[in-house]
Design brief:
Blueprint: H1 6-18, H2 22-36, H3 40-52, H4 59-71, H5 76-89, H6 93-106, H7 111-123, H8 127-137, H9 146-158, H10 162-170, H11 180-193, H12 196-210, H13 216-230, H14 234-246, H15 252-256
């Protein structure tokens, strides 16, 4: 750290804060405070640090400066994101929702923020409103990768929107993603809907697509066994269950399922 240039130290401090290493962030700030003070990205992170991680005597000042930056200006979005992080750690659901709405209305909220908003509204006792928000937002969401699709799928299942979840998994580019967690969520939704034929088809396809991925052959075999049993295909169900049982499975939560 002693040989780092202020620029390199700044990059390290930013990464340390974003990854939750507040001890390193504080140490780097102490060494390079003068250089960091002119960097808005680092200065705002310092105010967030004061608001939650620093001495209690500086918390009010940190919150006030974050609030000022949230009002307007070039760094409004970053201030909103940092404020949400502090609010979440303080379990201040009202403030989390307020800041999320500002991001959404600004057009700066990404896919994860929309999903977070739905779940937050539901957790605050407004499930019907959360479901309405999800239905309204889904068509316009710009899903850019499998992780984002998984986040949305998890939110839809969390809201109990099973039909919407299955339609989402089957639609457009989401259906083309070869991402294990996404396919497992699809299977969960079909199981909850008792869509046995669709679950059987998905489990067979899962075995073909992910057959060489550790543990996926086990869980896909279990899903097929369940689907076959529900479809009164006893011999096929027993065969699928037998194969799944014989395969190694290191993941305890998956084994419980």
């Amino acid at each position: 750290e002693e040989v780092l240039s202020p620029v390199a130290a700044g990059w390290m401090a930013k990464a340390a804060f974003d990854q939750g290493n507040m001890r390193l962030f504080d140490g780097l700030w102490s060494r390079h405070a003068q250089a960091f003070a002119g960097n808005p990205e680092l200065s705002l992170r310092r105010e967030a640090w004061k608001a939650h991680w620093g001495p209690a005597s500086g918390a009010a000042e940190g919150m006030a400066r974050l609030a000022a930056a949230q009002a307007e200006g070039k760094w409004r979005h970053l201030a909103l994101v940092l404020g949400r992080r502090v609010a979440a750690l303080r379990a201040d659901l009202s403030e989390q929702e307020r800041l999320l709405l500002l991001e959404i209305n600004d057009g700066t909220a990404g896919v994860p923020e929309h999903a977070e908003h739905w779940l937050l509204v539901a957790n605050r006792g407004r499930r019907n409103e959360a479901m309405r928000l999800a239905r309204e937002a889904l068509p316009a969401l710009d899903i850019r990768n499998p992780r984002q699709a998984t986040t949305v799928g998890q939110a839809l299942l969390g809201l109990g929107m099973l039909d919407e979840a299955v339609a989402f998994f089957r639609g457009g580019k989401v259906a083309r993603y070869r991402h294990v967690p996404l396919w497992l969520l699809h299977a969960e939704a079909l199981y909850a809907l008792q869509g046995w034929r669709e679950l059987r088809e998905l489990s067979v396809e899962m075995t073909m697509v992910f057959g060489d991925v550790p543990n996926v052959d086990v869980i896909s075999g279990v899903w097929r066994a369940v689907a076959d049993a529900k479809l009164n295909k006893r011999e096929s169900a027993l065969a699928a269950a037998g194969k799944a049982k014989a395969l190694p499975l290191e993941d305890a939560p998956l084994a419980l399922r």
